[in-house]
Amino acid sequence: MQSKDLLSVSDLTTEDIKQLITHAIELKKTKKSLLLQGKTLALLFEKPSLRTRVSFDMAMFQMGGHAIYLSPDEVGLGKRESVADVAHVLERYVDIITARTFSHQTLVELAHHASIPVINALSDFEHPCQALADIMTIYEKKHDLSGLTVTYIGDGNNVANSLLLAATLSGMNFNIASPDNYTIDPKIVEQAQKITCNNANIRLFTDPHSAIIDADVIYTDVWTSMGQEAEREQRRKDFAGYQINNELLSQSKPDAIIMHPLPAHYGEEVAEGILYHPNSVVFDEAENRLHIQKAVLALLAA
């Protein structure tokens, strides 16, 4: 890796991603190991979580380590106690920090002050562990990543940012369809264009029907993320027409797989029943959070 930390997918190389997927698949088969025996992970969370908290906790348990969950009220990161002070205290107690924060800058500051590895478990800018689980799942289902097309329909948010970087590093084409005011960050697009593997193409659309035609993977996420609740009604109006439903799926390849990082808002970004469609791999994707994070933890704790 190019850093002691995993704050962004861009901290990884194409070879790093290949090795992480290979190791994650091996760990998925063996389930338990002693790779992290005697190691402790701090789970430092500002936001609620189901998959992220449980998968990291179980990853440590299944590899012989231990996880400590620190809630927002217990720490008050940057409020009750400065980020620098929290970093310097935790580095003397634990071996790795996994942080789920509102601001990506908090993660950057935490990693700057901590001598131990820091993992981004979600920020307002990226969600790298989710993207790695996504790439692992696509590989399991399609067996080869090079030349596939991932089509993301919805908000150009943190999940989209990480997925774009991971897809292009893995040699996949990336389409994204978003309303005009919700397009993906141009800086991420520029960054992805610089690191793209195998001349992968990146295409931006406003029309989801055009974006989905050649998709091997159809991906969506919530229209309103945590911290944006006040915008929900406006976002529901702006994203009308961007729902994954049977009508839209009828325009895609018959074997295109359907993905969503969860939690889902039924009736918004996905119609009722879509996550239980025969082509949905959503719950395999959720399971793979556990296995890819095992590989990430093993790599950073080495």
Count of DSSP-assigned helices: 12
Q: Describe the biggest sheet?
A: 5 strands, parallel
Helix content class = 40-55%
Find the count of extended strands (DSSP E, 2+ residues). Answer: 9
Query: Oligomer, anyone?
Result: single chain
Q: How many domain regions?
A: 2
Radius of gyration: 19 Å
Class derived from helix and strand content? alpha/beta
Classified by CATH, the class of the largest domain is Alpha Beta
Distance between the termini: 12 Å
Overall body shape: globular
CATH superfamily of the largest domain: Aspartate/ornithine carbamoyltransferase
* N-to-C series of helices and strands: HEHEHHEHEHEHEHEHEHHEH
Query: Averaged pLDDT, please?
Result: 95
**Architecture (CATH level 2) name of the largest domain:** 3-Layer(aba) Sandwich
Unreliable stretches, pLDDT < 50, 5 or more residues? Answer: none
Q: Please state how the strands of the largest beta sheet are arranged side by side.
A: 7-6-5-8-9
The CATH topology of the largest domain is given as Rossmann fold
- Proportion of residues in extended strands: 5-15%
Q: What tags apply to this protein structure?
A:
302 residues, alpha/beta, Rossmann fold, 2 domains, four-stranded parallel beta sheet, globular
Structure commentary:
This protein is α/β, with parallel strands linked by helices and about 300 residues long. It has two domains: about 90 residues, Aspartate/ornithine carbamoyltransferase (Rossmann fold, 3-Layer(aba) Sandwich), CATH 3.40.50.1370; about 160 residues, 3-Layer(aba) Sandwich (Rossmann fold), CATH 3.40.50.1370. The chain is built from twelve helices and nine strands. The strands form two sheets. It has a five-stranded parallel sheet. The protein has a four-stranded parallel sheet with strand order 2-1-3-4, with helices on both faces. Strand 1, helix 2 and strand 2 form a beta-alpha-beta unit. Helix 1 crosses helix 6. The longest helix has 20 residues. The chain is globular. The model has no long low-confidence stretch (mean pLDDT about 95).
